[in-house]
Amino acid sequence: MKVKLRSALSTTHGITAFVTVISILILLNRIVDSQFIEYVKQTQNIKLENIITDISHQYHDDWREFRIRQTGDRALEDGFVISVENSQGDIIFDIAKERESSPEELLSDISKSMKNHYKNWVGKITTHERRLIHENRQIGTLFISYYTPFYFTSEDSKFINSIHEVITISIFLSIFFALILGLLISRSISIPILKTTKATREISKGNYDEHISETFKIIEINELALWINKLAKDLKEHELTRKRIVSDVSHELRTPLAAIQINLEGIVDGVLEPDEERLEGIYKEILRVNRLVGELTKLARYENGNMELNRRVFNLKETLDSIVYTLEPQANIKDIKIIVNKTNVEYYGDEDKIKQAIINLISNSIKYSNENGRIYIYLDFKKGNTILEIKDYGIGIPKENLKYIFERFYRADKSRDKSTGGFGIGLTITKEIVEAHSGTIQIESKVGKGTDVMISLPGGKIIR
Ligand code: ADP
């Protein structure tokens, strides 16, 4: 069964409040009752002793019935029916006889209110006999009848009833406020969730500009909203990148393919001569298409999630030497000098991939350096990290392009591609490789001044 969060929260809250409060009510009533019964029993004992003392004090050489009657009337109000016998065994006072009623009739008010209060109350009138003593001599006997094991006088009943009333009222008020609070709490949770859901639904439809602008009081929901906004922003960027990639790839493919098509059509129609120069041109275009497909395959392999690292310990200094050795001929074409300053560092990683990343960076520096340029390479180990820096004094990258530089197919200046032959994939791959090794890559660049790429890879060690 599916229920709305709001109903679920309010119902749970309501039930919890109800059960708790009713349990407290039952418990409290029981405690109050048992404590009160204890109290009543104690006061009744005291009252009983007082009656005995009171009656004993009425004796002055002889009994004074008038005084005894007063005490008897008061005792009856407290729930005691008394009769007094003198030392000769004659009854000198019997309130039941005087009022011509039985003790049950005299105490009927008590039994009624007790039955009201306790449905299962079975009161039994018990008569106790107490000796009356004056100056160490028995002057008579007191017979005292009352309900056992306990009873409440009308005063007691009034008192305990009002306590129960107060408890019940406050308990029901608590339930009422708990329910109101439950409703408010469930509203304060469900409304932000509904708003967040609405925004998420819009985002899933592709309306990435839809975002949650409100700040909610519940920290977790606020956090959720922030991440949903971030997700929408990322999705928007991904969507734009996807569109750009499709258009870039088709553009990259269209140009060489169109050139190949036109040339081949001309040759087939006999309009163009299939001379060496033309065939070489066609061949170059085919090479370019092939290179692009190769780059795309490489990218797919290196992209997040697809990269498998084949780690082993290798000497990074030696790897760097071999890369520089391979790239030097390219640099020599433009009379570029590569100056290497390296510490003997051993690193645990995927040598082939790290090699690929370094080749990409040095190749870029060669590609974007002017004739007679200089490229500095530093390899070091600092604070537990292997540091690699490649610095050139080439054409640099405009500041506004720097933040996109690691994106696929991003070229700072589209017109550069023809001369440099790049597709804007090298830095993307480099970054993926560095991050797969839990490292970071930073790039600083100034147009006309040059570019400085810094890589920091956790781990490694200097070897002597
Ligand atoms: P590409 O294959 O086009 O060189 P990259 O991803 O390696 O692709 O580089 C992306 C873009 O960044 C390049 O097109 C270029 O405009 C710019 N770039 C990269 N490295 C340098 C550099 N050292 N100097 C100047 N521009 C650079």
From TrEMBL:
CDD domains: HAMP (cd06225), HATPase (cd00075), HisKA (cd00082). The chain crosses the membrane at residues 12-32, 166-185. Residues 248-461 form the Histidine kinase domain. It catalyses: ATP + protein L-histidine = ADP + protein N-phospho-L-histidine. InterPro entries: HAMP_dom, HATPase_C_sf, HATPase_dom, His_kinase_dom, HisK_dim/P_dom, HisK_dim/P_sf, HssS/ArlS-like, Sig_transdc_His_kin-like_C. The keyword Transmembrane applies. It is found in: Cell membrane. It is a multi-pass membrane protein. Gene3D superfamilies: 1.10.287.130, 6.10.340.10, Histidine kinase-like ATPase, C-terminal domain. Its EC number is 2.7.13.3. Keywords: ATP-binding, Cell membrane, Kinase, Membrane, Nucleotide-binding, Phosphoprotein, Transferase, Transmembrane, Transmembrane helix, Two-component regulatory system. GO terms for molecular function: kinase activity. Residues 187-240 form the HAMP domain. This is histidine kinase.
